[in-house]
Specification:
Blueprint (H helix, E strand, L loop, with lengths): L19 H9 L2 H9 L2 H31 L4 E4 L2 E4 L9 E3 L5 E5 L6 H9 L10 E2 L2 E2 L5 H7 L1 E4 L11 H6 L14 H7 L1 H5 L10 H13 L5 E5 L7 H15 L4 E5 L3 H7 L2 E6 L2 E7 H5 L2 H8 L2
Parallel strand pairs: 4-9, 4-10, 7-8, 8-9
Antiparallel strand pairs: 1-2, 2-3, 5-6, 10-11
Helix pairs in contact: 1-3
Length: 308
């Protein structure tokens, strides 16, 4: 029986016009390959089909990774002696923000304004294009995330990032370690006291928790590295009002233990009561910095930079 000719979808919307991926697709559709597909044994045709498909996938993934690096490479953050200098879009804009021990500072702004890029760069997950990062007068520019964690930074990422197939106790156990100078301010017992819900569900897997419980677990895991600065991205995203209140009260208790907090969130009313100062970003530029009282007295800035 004559086998049908194997073909690739030629829709212009999905086929790139040029480049390595286009050349691979072209090779896959060439007459030589077409003849081979009709005449070669079945096992050889299958092998060739799989190999070419894997090559196309590899080139596609490589292009995505490069694009992701380009996008994330836009981030630039420099810190010096406890101060932050932000320039996520490399536009020559430099502003200074001080974060003191036990102080809670918010990063505000619409989506895509550089908030997450700033946190990820500070944590060592994004390399700064230029500038420097200093923590306690030590140059940490370009340091890996593991080094920044040992230097005193804790990170609660957007989406929580817990391990779904580990129990609550296991998620906490693997993150536990002393802080700088062998400080141990946070232990599993302290986390369970802070979040009694986690103590009740310590044997449950991560994917069996509610969204609020997962956020508690993510915060507890970060605290078990005994950080001096806690970075929180989208602290209450997708949580019910009652659970948001629990998270805000928890952050207030954490700050009372002299842990500095930099938090990103969209619930401005709650942040007004929690935070000492607010920073609004617009395309990487700091367009407002001040206390809750100053922000409340400037509704024009709130409407202009945070309004939908």
């Amino acid at each position: 029986m004559k086998l049908p000719l194997v073909r690739i979808n030629k829709t212009p919307a999905v086929r790139p016009p040029s480049g390595a991926l286009s050349e691979l697709v072209g090779a896959f559709e060439s007459e030589t390959v077409a003849v081979f597909m009709r005449t070669a044994p079945v096992n050889e045709r299958v092998i060739l089909h799989v190999v070419l498909a894997m090559l196309i996938l590899a080139v596609s993934l490589s292009a995505v990774v490069k694009l992701n690096r380009v996008v994330m490479g836009l981030g630039l953050i420099t810190t010096s002696a406890g101060s932050l200098y932000v320039n996520p879009y490399d536009m020559g804009i430099v502003r200074q923000v001080h974060v003191k021990a036990g102080e809670v500072v918010t990063l505000l702004g619409r989506n895509g304004m550089g908030k997450t890029t700033l946190l990820r760069t500070l944590m060592g997950l994004v390399k700064p294009r230029r500038g420097t990062i200093h923590l306690d007068d030590i140059d940490r520019t370009g340091a890996r995330a593991s080094i920044m964690a040992r230097a005193g930074l804790g990170f609660v990422p957007e989406g929580r990032g817990i391990f779904p197939n580990l129990s609550v106790a296991e998620n906490l156990m693997f993150a536990q370690r002393p802080g700088r100078d062998h400080r141990i301010d946070w232990t599993p017992a302290a986390i369970y006291a802070l979040f009694p819900r986690l103590a009740e569900r310590r044997r449950h897997w991560g994917n069996q928790l509610s969204g609020g419980e997962q956020q508690m677990l993510s915060i507890g895991r970060a605290l078990l590295s005994n950080p001096e600065v806690l970075l929180i991205d989208e602290a209450t995203e997708g949580l019910a009002p009652q659970m948001r209140a629990v998270i805000w009260e928890t952050l207030r208790l954490i700050a009372q233990k002299s842990v500095a907090i930099v938090v990103v969130d969209k619930n401005l009313d709650d942040l007004m009561h929690l935070c000492d100062r607010h920073v609004i970003l617009n395309k990487g530029e700091i367009v407002f910095e001040g206390s809750s009282q100053a922000l409340q007295a400037d509704p024009e800035s709130v409407a202009r930079w945070l309004g939908v």
